[in-house]
Amino acid sequence: MTATPPDTHSLRRITPGRDADELARAVYAALLTDLTDLTDADWRRPTDCTGWTVRDMVAHLVGAAEGHGSMPVFVSQYAWGLRHRKDHGGSGLDAMNQKQINDQQAMGDAALLARLGELAPRAVTGRSRRARWLGWAPITLDQAGSWYTGMPTHTTMGELCSVVLTRDVWAHRLDLARALGKPPTIDPRVDGPVVADIVADWSARHAQPFTLMLTGEAGGTFRAGGPGPSLTLDALDFARVMAGRRPDGSIPHSPLWTTKVLF
Q1: Which among 222, 184, 185 has a CA at the least distance from the CA of 201?
Q2: Where is the domain boundary, 154, 180, 206?
């Protein structure tokens, strides 16, 4: 007898609290494991994020972790982004990301990675604190720069700190693995909950019936509503599509892919 896949409405979303913090720490740990033993050439490889090398992406992650772990640093980065968004296609977020990269220019490659390992626990603690204290606060995103069609334009501080920023680190781990030419190390206990949360978020946003079979160790089978399209693809390719990235494999045609989620 074939088990009925869970309806996405019954999936437990990532919410502020201990489980979200543990998952965030695990995602950072997986990233750091995948970045061991990089060569000089590896650091200079281009990534799918236009204009960013592997080093640029790691520098962004370091700068972001600095801001997540320190409110004064975050405010400084955010204010700089607002002042310079005209130089980045009108996107304050793109401008802030560039500042995060610029601030790490003097640091050597190995030191940059060591710094990320040092900052990761502080970043998770800082994000958790903001989710508890300011979780209600609304956040509006610029529809400019690296904003992609279908991407949400609003979130809350609670969702940003507990969900979106974990996804950001996780997605950049996929970006870096692709740039380095080696698959990311997948742990279903870590990557599975991230993928399932993306599915649940995506399902709620488009509110259409479907059955979705995601292959690979991070995948699973999900459904929503009554009869709908049956879609099969690799779990990591699904995540790439949701993040506005180019997938590695072929993607079955569906208008549902026009709905994206925040990363």
Answers
A1: 222
A2: 180
Per-residue model confidence as pLDDT tens digits over 111-170: 999 999 999 999 999 999 999 999 999 999 999 999 888 999 999 999 999 999 999 999
- Could you tell me which of 198, 194, 199, 201 has the C-alpha nearest to residue 211? 199
One domain, residues 126 and 71: yes
Domain match, 120 and 216 both: no
30: Cα within 13 Å, side-chain hemisphere? 26
Tell whether 215 and 160 lie within a shared domain: no
Residue numbers of the domain that contains 68:
18-180
pTM of the model: 0.94
Q: Is 227 exposed, middle or buried (0-12, 13-18, 19+ CB in 10 A)?
A: exposed
Cβ-proximal residues to 52 (8 Å cutoff; 6+ apart), any chain? 46, 60, 101
Q: Which residues contact 129 (CB under 8 A, 6 or more apart)?
A: none
- How many Cβ atoms sit within 10 Å of the Cβ of residue 228? 15
Q: Which element (helix H / strand E) includes 139?
A: strand 138-140
